[in-house]
Write a structure and sequence with these properties.
By secondary structure, the chain is an alpha/beta fold. It has a single domain, classed as Ureohydrolase domain (Arginase, Chain A). Helix content is about 35%, strand content about 15%. Helix 5 packs parallel to helix 6, helix 8 packs across helix 9 and helix 9 crosses helix 10. It is globular and about 55 Å long. The two termini are about 30 Å apart. About 55% of the residues are buried.
Length: about 325
Amino acid sequence: MALEDAKSEVDTAFTRKGLRGYAFENAFGGATSFLRRTYTKDLTGVDLAITGVPFDQAVTHRTGTRFGPRAIREASSLQPYDPPYGWPTNPLEEMAVIDYGDLAFDYAKVSDFPAALTAHIRTILAAGAGTITLGGDHYITFPILKAYAEKFGPLGVIHFDAHSDLWPDDDLSRIDHGTMLYKAVKTGLVDPGRSVQIGIRTTTEDYLGVHVIDAREVHEKGVAAAVAKAKDIVGDDPCYVTFDIDCLDPSAAPGTGTPVWGGLHAWQAAAALRDLAGINMVGGDIVEVSPPYDTTGATAIAGAHVAYELICLYHWAKTQR
């Protein structure tokens, strides 16, 4: 969409006549849909739906990630003007990408939340679209993976995080962001042999067969080596990418509930996501952005960049399928 068109079509999140193209509008005004995509619940012809899950009732420490989807969307208003740097692809021009809005749920009925989220994602997948989800705490990945495994079978996972989320917990009724991957592996949603964690720097006694590339290995051996190893692990089968913002060092992303020093630098995360091009990514999420702990907005900006890179990864995979 040209600049002159934007002047006559104020707020393209509502007035865009198609689902493709850039939004040449003031970054400081207008709707805060992700990348100024069209807000719609109509999945007809949609390739990829961005959706928010403002849930943080599974955290072990500081709450606040319920505000993550809104903050990530607002931060993304800085980005929707040009093709993404470093990619031989132009997803906003070549794919129909929408903002599907947030999951609606009753915050006072926490036990109902997992099924509601699985149904939400299932609806989008049934329409033939993929999802990039804005969290929310990391528990949300478990109900999302349920919907994906229904469609694709056990998935490989690329998991960026400071924590393994593999704390032992065989009570499926417990809702805990530290046990997300444990439950996903134990219930057969995830194939640990085709899964890898990047950026880990906390202790876990049993990784359940999931491969680990800790933060120190990334720092010492380099991003290229880490990505090559990750690609070899996940292979060509369908995989899901989940990115906990605390994978980044707190100096780059202080706005999160459980920050851990020694994390990836922003440039390392950017390079890793771009170099993962070629994986068979079927969906992804960015979680644990907690705006109350970062008055600068830098963490939300990082989260918006991660989400855009996930869109690019999804589009690149789609062109190869």
